[in-house]
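During the second year of the project, the team shifted from modelling isolated chains to modelling whole assemblies. The rationale, set out in the original proposal, was that interfaces cannot be judged from single-chain predictions alone. As a representative example for this report, we include one of the complexes processed in the last quarter. Its constituent sequences, exactly as entered into the pipeline, are reproduced here:
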Amino acid sequence: MSHLSQFQTFLLLSILKIAVVLVITLTAVAYTVLLERKVLGRMQNRWGPSRTGPFGLLQPLADGIKLFLKEDLLPLAAERPLFIIAPIIALACSLISISVVPFGAVQHVKGVDMFAVADLNIGLLVILGITSIGVYGIALSGWSSNNKFALLGSLRATSQMISYELALGLSLVGVVLRAQSLRLRDIVDSQAAHGALSWNVFGGFQFVAFFFYLMAAYAETNRSPFDLPEAESELVAGYHTEYSSMKFAMFFMAEYANMITVACVATLLFFGGPASPFGHLIPAFGGAIVQAVLPVLWFVAKVLAFLLLYIWVRGTLPRFRYDQLMSFGWKFLLPLAMLNIIVTSLVMALRG
Amino acid sequence: MQLALFLIFGALAVAGAINLLLQRHPINSALSLVVVMMSLAVLYWSLGAEFLAAAQVIVYSGAIMVLFVFVIMLLNAGEEERTTGSRIAYIAGFPGAAAIFCLLSFVFLSERKAMGGTDLGGYLSHSVNNIAEISRLLFRDLLLPFEVTSILILVAILGAVVLARKEQ
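Output from the structure prediction step:
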């Protein structure tokens, strides 16, 4: 590739990175659905999908084909352009935020960082901003369906997401204070000194913030125990009642992609990202390639652990009531997250 | 590259603003305003103000405009009626707008030396972290005005709560 200019190399490698990350994310989304069905099945003493392929491994493929081939219904009274744009907004926003996540150690090939699509110095703010734009997809889908259940579901989802966005943002401030940067790589580096002992959740004494983040993130992704927008006993299916075929699949994929993003952010901010929990205890083994791939494996393992936690929580906890949800967010999470900021900054000021 | 970014998002902002005026349904107008704000955020970013860009997206398009859309959805506002508009608006409005445009561009062009220029998108290539600079300015040099502004906003919120509370 010596005859290519700097810009051309950058462009080609960036397109390659985007394609690889997109394919892996979408596959991960499909198999997270399968994982959830299998694990939930085991928790409820049944098998889960087991007929399609060995251990039901081809089930996501079969589901995908089914959703593609189904008839795409469009309600007569729906607001046409918005009804079609809404799932696109939801899916696009949930996929864009993956692009700022660094999923491996810094590894430059021809001056391009290979293990992150984009390394921005406001990476954390970009993730928060894109999450706040994702609200539009849900709000518009409910309104444009012209269906009262869809509207109620989308109103619930929107108010819930706006309320918990505050607690989510505030719970991350302690981590930013410790790293003194909003760049995700800097935040990872600030936890890299002594393996697991220096992770923000243990050595950084941010475990309170971690639990606040976890609760706010579950509400932000509309997952149980905060899945009121899709409470099927009250609202049919919530905001995507009127959607069928691929448009429904897009909402479905957006929800699971959001889960993966939230798991990635929790890993990066509180669990040292791609860093090994053993730090420098284990001597470097293998060649350069093994050392480059090993952090990615740690990252994937941590994200997988968070996804399993999601499923475990869904299998365990009952749903909140709506007023409980609001008072929990505004009267419990928000003040305590602020208190965490004050205590963290006081401790940092006294030490430094 | 940077010039292309500026042209694309500048055009998008102008198109969104015109669409905002032309659309008859309030929710479409609100969504065009979101497009305008997002394009402005990209322009801020290309000028090196990445914190301003993120704040623009999070605060304006993520919070304030969601509230707008929420209100429109709840009030179930219908399509607005087309009127021909008042004659004064035609007689005074168009020449006035043109005069203000000419005046502003004359001032900007004639005082170009005094105001100084900026390299379009030149800040994208080398990453300057201006968040530390902004926070130093806000929390050290201009601490008092900043805190007074926060209290002003708090007073406004309290006023809204008092106005919205039901009489006992």
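The first strand of chain A starts at residue 108 and ends at 109. Chain A has a mean pLDDT of 83.
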